[in-house]
Structure formats: C-alpha cells, structure tokens
Amino acid sequence: MSQGDQDTLEIHAETNAQTNASWGGRFSEGPDELVARLNASVSFDQRMFAEDIRGSQVHATMLGAQGIIADEEATLICDGLEKIKGEIERGDWQWSDALEDVHMNVEAKLRERLGDAGARLHTARSRNDQVATDTRMWLMSRIDQLEEQLLLLIRGFISLAENNLDAVLPGYTHLQRAQPILFAHHLLAYVSMFDRDLGRLRDARERMAWSPLGAAALAGTPFPIDRQMTAKALGFNGVISNSLDAVSDRDFAVEFTSAAALCMVHLSRWSEELVLWSSQEFSFIELPDAFSTGSSIMPQKKNPDIPELVRGKTGRVIGDLVTLLTLLKGLPLAYNKDMQEDKEALFDAADTLLDCVTVTAALTPLLRVDQKRMRAACDEGYVTATDVADYLASRGLPFREAHHVVGRLVRWCIMEGRGLTSLSLEEFKRFYTDFDEEILEKVTVESSVAARSSEGGTSPHRVREALLLAKGKFQV
Ligand code: ARG
User: How many angstroms separate the alpha carbon of residue 131 from the centre of ligand 1?
Assistant: First the structure.
C-alpha cells in the first residue's frame, strides 16, 4: 500500500467514527438522535428483505457476468446474501435503526463479513433504483396472493347463488322495496364487481412489472451493466426506459392502492347488506357463528362485527390512496426522501385488502339464507306495481299515463289495507276499464320476476344463463 492510500484510509477512519457507515464520509458528526429515528424506515421496510436480497443477488451476478466485478466476488456476495436471508428468516438477526433501512442493514452485514467483495455490491446502483425495484417486486407477489383470494371470493358468491336459485327477495332502490328479483341475480352483481376488481389488479400488475434496476441514482451509470438480464431474472417484463422515471415513478403504488380502495368499497357495500339483512328488521340471512360476536352486556345479541369491520376498514384504504397521491403531488424529479413515506400506506392497503377479501371469501358461502322471509317481504310494498303499469303500456296506454293510473290504484290499496294480488278484476277495472283477466296473473311476484327477461335481467332463464357463464369463467 502506498503512503497516499494509507493517508486516505486514516482520514476515513477518523471521519467515520460517529457517522453513517454508508454515506458518512462527507460528514463530521453523526445525526441527531431524533433525526436518526425519523430518517429510519427499517421498522417497516424490513418486510421487503427477501426481495432486497434477491435483487442484490441478481445485481451481483450481472456485475460478475459483465466483468464489472470478479466472478469469485459475485459468488461470495450471492452466498453471503443467502446466509443473511436464512438468518433473518430464523429470527437470528438484529435490525438497526442507525443503518436506516432494509437495504443498508443487509449490505452493512455483508460488508462486515466479506470486506471489499461486500463493498463492491453497490457498484452501478443506488438505493434509489434498489428501493423502487424491491417495492415493485413485493407488490407483485402480494397481488398474486390477492388474486387467489379474490377468485375464492367470486367462487363463494357463485356457489351461494347456485344453492339458492329459487330465492326471491325485493330489490331495493333508496332502500325502499322496488321490484322483486332473484337472490342469485343480486349475488351475480357482486361477481361482476369483483371480476372487474380482479381485472384492475391484473392490469396494475402488468404495468408494474418493469424494472427500475440499473437507473442508479437518477441518470444511469457509466458501468457496462445489462439491465435486460437483471429485469428478466427478477421476473419483470422488461426495463423502464427512462432512468429518471424509473427512480421517481410511484404510479404503480397509486394504481394498486386505487384498485384496492375500489375493491374495498365493493366489499363494504356487501358488508353493509349483510349487516342490514342479518338485522331482525330484515332477517333475510344469518351469519355463521364463527364469524359473529356476542355482546358483553346483552346476552341475546349476535353482532355482525366482521362485516362492520370490513366496512370500517374501507376508510383506511381510501386514506392510504389519499396519502400516496398527496405524497407525490409536489415532488420534483427524481428521488426525494418523501417517497420513503409511500411504504406504510402501501403495505397497509395491501394487508387490509388481503385480510378483508380473505375473511369475506370464507364467510359468504356459509351464510344461512331464509328464503321464506325473503319471499314474504315481496308480499308487502306493492313491488309488482310496475308490472301493472307495464301491462297497461303493452296494451297501448302511454307509459306515463299508465303510471298515473297505477299510482291511484296503489293509493287506494294503501288506504284499504289491500295487496295487489288480492284485487278482483272488477276492482282493477274501477281504475281503468281496459284491464282483463290476465292482470291477476301479471301482479304475482313469480310472474313479475319471470317477465324481466331482457338481456341482463332477473328472469330465472337469464339468471341461469348468467350463472352458467360465470361458472365457466371462474371454473366452478
Ligand atoms: N429508505 C429509502 C426509501 O424508502 C431508500 C432510498 C433512499 N435513498 C436515498 N438516497 N436516501 O425511499
């Protein structure tokens, strides 16, 4: 070693005494304690350790293959990282706030063990492309898990529909009884919603699967790296073409969280129906005991806590989306430390959605459906009044006028305490002379449902058709 090298080493030893081992060279003192705590993200980003290690192994292998570091060093790095991974998995590992984040914790240990070889791992990359790569990989595998649970959820809806094909209940608008519909039709509406949610997650995953690795800090690197190779080895479709975009884009997190928030909204609407339907006022369904809770004071109670929680947690995920959008809106290119704040919101959205989809998938097929109560609810509320108007309109009366005639008829029925199916032909004729025998059949609930046979309608024929399509699509 020359005298010059020796001097440099000593200067480093002196300045590094209190400062950060990775970037402390420029600093004469270490960070304030509060600063260190605020700066650290390892308490939450440690959950990306597997992605971080995989990314580093692939990066090191590429550096070796391109002759940027020696092959033996690449092998040492990969083996060292594998060992670290095992230690973290076994819990034989200490995270340090002083080392800021998961990336520097892992790298510091590698350097401590391998010396120069470990210190060469960070050639031709930066934590800026590293964290973007890790986060994308983490989220891609989360989406894969979500996809599985969403498929289970959809199949649960389909099987509940199939097991209750004859059930009829009032369809509601403004939470007022409107027209009778098949319960299966109602359930298949949710199948459509969750199918679109699945599509949005798959879309988001597809756009997320492009590799930022090799963008380095922001501008690329002078080293002859092979970005295609690392992208392929890490399961990406290809590379993000612009280095600034690669390190500063968090669209993927926003897109995912937006799809997650919307899926939560769908889960929340279903949960709200479960809360209503399981109330004594409706009593259309009973929740399985294993998914309900009791009251600590009222012994008779069986509370729908789980649907309520799903409904409540929807607010968190919407909040996560707002957090991410607000985080990004004022950021100049390229990386800014604000971006470290993306993770807790993103993790929370992914965790919450996965839990809520999973619990709803488990609960839904176990609902006990009271078909009698549902059907009885159709006998009140004049739910077939539209059928009377449709009948008159089909006989030539303009629909607006028919609507008026039936309005008067219903008002009279309410005053007399009569239901539409109890009226005689003579009574119908009092409101409009052109009624004939057919009307007595038209006002029944069964005829009303069967009549709605337009494409996408609730008639048993249409619903069977829709169910068959759904079964084919989701392999039930
Ligand atoms: N922990 C950081 C984050 O999550 C990693 C990137 C830090 N890069 C930097 N130059 N400070 O964003």
Answer: 7
174 in catalytic set: yes
Atom of ligand 1 nearest to the CA of 100: 1
Answer with the one of 123, 151, 174 that is the final residue of a domain. Answer: 123
Active-site choice (174, 296, 424, 454): 174
For the residues of 360-403, what is the DSSP string, one character each?
HHHHGGGPEE-HHHHHHHTTSS-TTHHHHHHHHHHTT--HHHHH
CATH number of 101's domain: 1.10.275.10
* Of 215, 226, 225, residue with least CA distance to 249: 215
CATH number at residue 256: 1.20.200.10
- Grouped pLDDT means (10 residues each) for the chain, 476 residues: 40 48 75 87 98 98 98 98 98 96 98 97 98 98 98 98 97 96 98 98 98 98 98 98 98 98 98 97 94 76 92 98 98 97 98 98 97 96 95 95 96 96 96 95 97 97 98 95
Residues lining ligand 1, Cβ inside 6 A: 41, 45, 101, 127-128, 131, 335, 337, 339-340
pTM of the model: 0.91
- Please report, for the domain that includes residue 429, its CATH number: 1.10.40.30
Q: How far is the CA of 82 from the centre of ligand 1 (A)?
A: 23
Count Cα neighbours of 144 within 13 Å in the Cβ-side half-sphere. Answer: 8
Pairing between β-strand 238-239 and β-strand 285-286 as defined by DSSP bridges: unpaired
